[in-house]
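ok so I'm stuck.
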Amino acid sequence: MTLRSDEITGIIKKELEKYKTQYTEESIGTVTQVGDAIAKIYGLDDVMMGEIVQFSEKVYGIVLNLEEDSVSVAIFGTDNPDRLIKEGDIVKRTGEIVRTPVGEALVGRVVDTLGNPIDGKGPIVTDKYRPVEFNAPNVIQRQPVKEPLETGLKAIDSMIPIGRGQRELIIGDRQTGKTAIALDMIINQKGKGVYCIYCAIGQKLSTIVGVSDALKKYGAMEYTTIVSASSLASASLQYLAPYAATAIGEEMMYKGKHVLIIYDDLSKHAQAYRQLSLLLRRPPGREAYPGDIFYLHARLLERAAKLNDELGAGSLTAIPIVETQAGDITSYIPTNVISITDGQIYLENDLFNAGVRPAVNVGLSVSRVGGKAQTKAMRQVASKLRIDLAQYRELVTFTQFGTELDKATQAQLSRGERMIEILKQIQYAPLSVAKQVIIIFAGTNGYLDGVKITCVKRFEAELFAFLGKGYLHFEEELEAKKELTDDLKVQLENILEEFKAQFKEIAN
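replied:
not stuck anymore, here's the structure
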């Protein structure tokens, strides 16, 4: 069978119409210089600031500098990630900014900065992602901070109350119990409907494992996510870690839930950013930090908020930790973060070494939300506690001159000593608000005045045991009402009188 030429042309045309060209357009660049986890790339003219770029199948980086004829990229990874890259390698755009998986799938997990699981419990199954950088809620979207976020620590809940949506700094030297306070806060949220995030920045892996083990032991990992950017992680991952952790918390906040996030610690975060900035040849400023170091922490901590009712009334409470050198809170990073936050809990080395734990310096610690973030019962018993302790410290200083004291001054010193003893608390033993109110009421109303200093902690333990045996209903009623009514006050006075009558160790 022979085909005419016009038939052959028709067949060819039909076949050509069926054929569709499939091609993809990629923007690529070339590595011109690499070292210290920073790569300089020629090309990528249309790349965005903060965009993810791909070096190879498993190596990625983030664009941090846009220059006239090149871009500078911080490489992700641990343990010297730039060893996998060499000059001349091809780099591709991904068209995506840094984002992290979010949602219920992350509860109870330990993840890295990019949301990859590192706890050996298998992959995280979620289809929800959020950008690590996100605009903070504006003034109209917020409401005043007025709900208490109870820490379970007498010294904090009574004098430096924290509210849901607040930003409260924990500041102090190394080994003064900063992380211990943060862990007690997390453990105390059990059963209170608060989702917790612990973000470890630049910590040793052994420290992060210890935190995870402690939270598991006390049942807190059931509502906690740990975001780990250990000291082995590159500076870029340490820099992004708190933003990623905040994105995970924001997902919950915008669903109307309450979130507590701990940044441990922002001193190391600032150091990682300084390292990146110097390697990127950005101009150094004070203490060699870049000029935008204040903005680095301001845009992070401003994302903490108490949302208005229209947005679900969720909250994100931020607890940054900052390390000082020899107690100097006037240095650059501490003053920056103090000015951004709504108060600070200052831990003092001398108090810690003297056995006062938590080692809270009442004079330098403050909460700018104040009594609005306290239950009425706590306000009733602790309203004068800060002033009384300040007066006690003044008297202690005065008595060092060896002056003879009148009876009223001796009584004031005696009560002050016992209040200091009451406020001491061992780690991993947070107390309910009712228990805190009861023991502070006992101290401020003189029920401990005759008790030996060495027996004060025993008095407290036996008092709680006494309440648990015969007066559990009183504690439950006080917890429910959150107010020390006249009726409850009379009941509490009778309980304390009855207990004190049978308490054995009374001073002569």
